[in-house]
Amino acid sequence: MEVRNNYINGQWQASVSGATREVINPSNGEVIALVTDSVAEDSKQAIAAAKAAFYQSGAWRRMAGPKRADLLLRIADAIAARADELAVMDTLDNGKPLREARCDVDDAAACFRYYAGLITKPQGGVYEVSDGFGPMHAYSMHEPVGVCALITPWNYPLLMAAWKLAPALAAGNAVVFKPSEVTPLSAVALFEIFHQVGLPAGTANLVLGSGPAAGQELAASHDVDMITFTGSTRTGQTIAAAAVGNLKKVGLELGGKSPNVIFADADLEGAVEWAMIGVFFNQGEVCSAGSRILIEESIKDRFVARLAERARAMSIGPGMKDPDMGAIVSAAQLEKVLGHIERAKQQGATLVCGGVRHTAGECAKGYFVQPTIFDNCTRDMDIVREEVFGPVVAIQTFTSEAEAIAMANDTPYGLAGGVFTTDGARALRVVKEIRAGVTWINCYNPTFNEAPWGGYKMSGYGRDLGVNGLLEYQQVKQVNINLQPGPVGWYQR
Ligand code: TXE
């Protein structure tokens, strides 16, 4: 089996470790590819290449914005041209339904287009300043941060790569990218595209390997100016601690336990379907998943009955067959999800449906879990407090708006939240009170390249996407100009 390698300084090369790692199709447990398994030394080489590209050559950061934009547009075109292949790759690698992978590919291409457009728009400002030293004028300009390390998880392999690489490159940085070791394949294809469109050597480097062996160096190195990470809160804390050494800039998009608040006046059928999208989309492996449904007591029984009816009717199977729900990404994640389910049962939550591994027919060897609903959950249960990252939802009830808000915020996380009601003023009031970075009214989970994405509290800091996403990868420089050069007489009084 051919081994996929790192891409460092414009060259494909194997890890110095000589080791390889198997990439598994979670739908059947079979090995679908081999990738090189990097160690800290590979990351050091990639960092050195990025540093030389940024600080010595400077070809990319000095390239005029519109020319950088042209290259990003060519990357978007190339992603679109390989859309079918990339969607299949992410489906086989991650387990998600093919049509969801196709959406990811379209969004990834659109993300490169968005930042290609944004980088050519006005940035910075011009300031009227006081004239204590004589007439002065000030302006600000946006510059790339320098060497940026980008680390992504396995739930949206290509899309998370695009969320970070597109703005980082648009801004003129040099990057080292480490995708999750669980789903590295579409990243390799993306770097083939970078090579094909002619990004200057060293501008974008790819390191394939595990977090502790290859990723930790990216967080700790004093030659890295910035690290951005999407993944678990615990790993985010490790990265933030390692980054302290040179006070590199840090961006973290971490876990969540997001509330989906449904009032009695909501359109019930709509709320049920969006709640399903909220927690079963991508097998529930979504950082923003609406994994806590807070429902007004008077409609709880009707809502739960309908949700369960529709959950039971979902088709489950290999992503390539385009079912409603595919496989959990790995054996380890399957164990984690099943462990959460067992604990919820032990702690007294009422299992309404699912709650088991799905092994029927062609799912026998894969890592499938049935969509799972727990009713009568209470605030002290792990299922209410901890991120599961699987198709499992906890139901709790409330009787007043104030109680709903208090329950929604009763979590260390703050990534997302949703509100369903036909009372517009109440929707706005509740959303305003939810301490989370991404919120939805009468829908759940739609995400747009144009709007900023990120968390409050232990869901991290910094923003992906939108104008904020570009700003993350930029420094702001102040330029002060003396309009009347010459002595000012300060020391002659
Ligand atoms: O995540 P990790 P894992 C949550 C979800 C899931 C749990 C564990 O609850 O069940 O995390 O998943 C790299 N230095 N999320 O173990 O460890 C790693 O190689 C540098 C939420 O896969 O956070 C991978 O590239 N890098 C989430 C990335 O971090 C390190 C998405 C994510 O892995 C590292 C995924 C280290 N010391 C999981 N250790 C979300 N917010 O979307 C690991 N990595």
TrEMBL record:
It holds the Pfam family Aldedh. GO terms for molecular function: oxidoreductase activity, acting on the aldehyde or oxo group of donors, NAD or NADP as acceptor. Signal peptide: none annotated. Keywords: Oxidoreductase. It comes from the Bacteria. The active site is at residue 253. Residues 12-479 form the Aldehyde dehydrogenase domain. Belongs to the aldehyde dehydrogenase family. This is Aldehyde dehydrogenase family protein.
